[in-house]
Amino acid sequence: MSLLVSAASAAYPDGARPQAVRLAADEPVLRIDGRLDEAVWQRAPVHDAFTQYLPVERWPAPMRTTVQVVVDDSGITFGIRAYDPEPALIRAPLVRRDQVMRDQDFVSIVLDPVGARQSAQFVRVNAAGVVADGMFIADTDTEDFAPDFETEAAVQREVDGYSVELRLPLLALRYPYSGGGAWRLMVTRSVPREASMLLLSAPLSKDALNFISELQAVTGLEDVTDRVRDRSVLSVRPELTARRTRGEQRGNELSLGADIKWRPRADWVFDATLNPDFSQVELDTPQLAGNTRFALSVPEKRHFFLESTDVLDLPLPAFYSRSVTDPRWGVRATWRGAGADATALSLSDAGGGLILQPGAYGTGVAPQDTRSQATLLRGRWHAVAATLGGLVSVRDYGEGRDNRVAGADVLWRASGQDQLRVRLLGSQTTALFDADGAPQTAPREDGHHTSLSWWRRTPGWNFTAELSDVSPRFRNDNGFVEQAGVRILKTELIRRFGERELAPLGAWSAFTAYEFEATLALEQRSALRDAPAGIAGGETVLRHIHPGLWWVAALNTEAWLQLHLNAERAKPASAGGRLHPSRSLALGYGVNPAPWFTRFNAELEVGERLDVEADRVGRGAVWLFEAKLRAGLPNGWGLESEQRVQQGFIQGRDGRRALTDTAAQWLGVLHLSARDSLRVLWQHSRLARAEDAAAAVPANAARESVASLVAQRRFGVGRVLSAGLSRQSRQPPRALETELFIKASFELMP
Length: 750
Prior knowledge:
It contains 4 helices and 41 strands. It is mostly beta strands and 750 residues long. The chain folds into 2 domains: 2-228, Sandwich (Immunoglobulin-like); 233-593 and 701-745. The strands form 5 sheets. The protein has a 24-stranded antiparallel barrel. Strands 2, 5, 6, 7, 8, 11, 12 and 13 form an 8-stranded antiparallel β-sheet that branches. Strand 6 (119-126) and strand 7 (131-137) form a beta hairpin. The longest helix is centred in the N-terminal third of the chain and has 10 residues, at 2-11. It is globular, with a radius of gyration of 27 Å. The protein starts with a helix and ends in a 5-residue tail after the last strand.
C-alpha cells in the first residue's frame, strides 16, 4: 500500500493541475486539424500527471500523455498528445458515432462547467477521429451516450503516437449565469493492448462513489462565464422527409418538421419541436418477451428529450420519455443555477402506444389511441452534502380524464463512502381504460410509490440496499411502472479482493485477474393486500438469492459465475398460484480477442425455469452470443459487422420443448469516410409454444422480421442527408410493409 501511495503522490505533486491559456487577440483562431503546431500550443502549460485506473489503480502510467487547454471568446480547445512506443499497435477503426469503446485507442475529456462534480459532459475521440459523447451522472455512477454535443475534433497520426484537437463551443456547454464553482476536468486515455489500460489525469480510486468524484479544478478559466454568459444563440433545424409506403397502408407523404433551440443567456435553454419525424431513429435491440409477464423498457434515442438529462435525474417510475409515442409538438425550458436547477416540458402526443396497467403479477396494457398532453415540471435544490428535488407530472386525455403524479426526493451524501436517497411519489388517476382502450367511467384511484436506498463503498467492500413500496393503484402514465401492489427489497454485497492469481482448471490455466470479487445479491418481492384483485398481503411474488464470482483480466476479459436460488409465483394464491422453487447456474464471458474481432460476449443460464403461462417449472436455458467484427478496407474505408443471437426455451411435461423464444440481429456498416456510411440492419424474432392441455395453454406461433438499408451523409453539425429502404413482415396476422424514404435536416443559426 505504501508503494501505491508514494506512486500516486509522485504523479500528483502539489499544484499539478490543468491550466488554461487564453488565445491572444492578435492570434488567429485555432484550426482544428489535429496538429498542435500553432504558436499558442508552444506556450500553453502542459499537464502530464497521468496514472493508471485500469488494470491497477494509481500505478504510474507506462506511456506519456499530455493535455493542454486553450480558451478564446467562443470556445475551449483541448490539445492532447498520446505518445506510444509501439504506434503500429494503435487501434483506430472507423465506427459509428457513440461507438468509441475500450477496444479502441481513444482520449476523452470529462468536463464539469458547474464545478459541483454531480454531473459532467464527456467527449471521446478515437485515433481515427470518431466521436462519442454524453453525460456522466454522479449519483448513479452511470454514463449516458444518448446526448450529443456540438463538438469539433480531429486527429493526426504521428511517428510516436497520435495527437488530438477537440473543441467545444462555450455556447454548447451548460453552466450557471453566476455563482458557479471552478470548472473541473479529467482527461482519460484508453490503450487496448493485452493489459487494456485506462489512464487518468486525476487520482481516482475504485473505492470512490463515482467516476467523476476527483475531477480537478482548471485554472485560467475563472472569467470565462462572465465573458459569454449574456450571449444569445438561436438554432433552427428544419427537417424534410419524403416517404412512400406499401402494405396495409399505402401512400406517399411529404412531412416538414423543425427543432428550435434558443439559449438567451448562459443559464436558460428553450427547446421546441414541431411535427418531429422519429421513424429513422435506430431500431431498439430485440428482447426476449415470450415468457415475460412484466413490460420491458427501452432506452431513449430521440434528441428532443436529451437536453440536460442530468437536471431531470429521475428513475423510470418517475419519468419515461418513451411513454410519449408520437408527439405533434413539444416545448421545454431548462434553467441551471449555482445552487438549484429546473426543467419543464409539455408535449402533445397523437397516441399509438400503450398505457401500462401494472399489477403485482403482471403488466396489463391498453391501446393509447387517444390524443393526450404530457407535462412534467422538475426542480432541484443543491447543498454541499445534499440535493432536494420535487416533480409534478400530468397526463391529460381530455374530458376530465387524466393521471397526476407529484413527488419529492432527497439525496444525502453522508460521507465520501455513504450515499442515501429517499423518493416519494403520489398519484391520482381518473383516466381509466378497458382492454380495448375505451375510456371508462369510474371513481378516482389514488396510489403511492416510495423508495429508500443506501449505497456504501469502503476499501474492499461495496454494499447497496433498496426498499420500495408500490401501492396497488399507483400509476404514472408519464413514467414506466411495470409492477404495482408490491413491496420490494433488493440488496447486494460485494467483496473486492483486488488483483489475484487464479487457476480455475488447474495450474496449466492460471492467469492474473486484475479485479476479483465475490458477490451476493438478494431480492424479495411481496404482494400488498389488494382486495378487489383477490390478493392477500404478504404472499411472495419473487425471491432471488444469487451468490457469485466476478473477475476481469487481460484483453478486457470479463467473466462471472452465479448460482440462482429462486422462487416465483406466476399468479395469486387465491387463483391457485403456488410458489415455485427453481435452481439454475448462470455464467458469462466477454473479451476483446483481436483488433479485427473487437468483442465476443456469451451468456448462459441453465437449469430450472418458470413457465409463466403454464404456471409450472421445467428444465430450460437462456443463452446469448454477441460478436463484433471490424476491418479496414482499401481507400481508407472501414467495415463493421455486429451479430447478436439470444434464445430461451423450456421443456414441457413430455420432455419436448414447450416454449422457444428467439431474437436475432445483424448490423453491418460500411464507412466510406468519417461522414459517409451505408448501413444494413436485419432483425428477427420468433415465438413458438406447444399446446399444454393440462394447463389449458393453446399452441401459439408468431414471428416478425425487419430489414433496412440506409445511406447517410453528414455535412456537419445538424446537417444530415439520409436515404433508405425498409421492409417489415409479421404474422399473425400476416402483414408485409415496405417503405422508401429520403430525409434531410440542416441547421440555421441566424
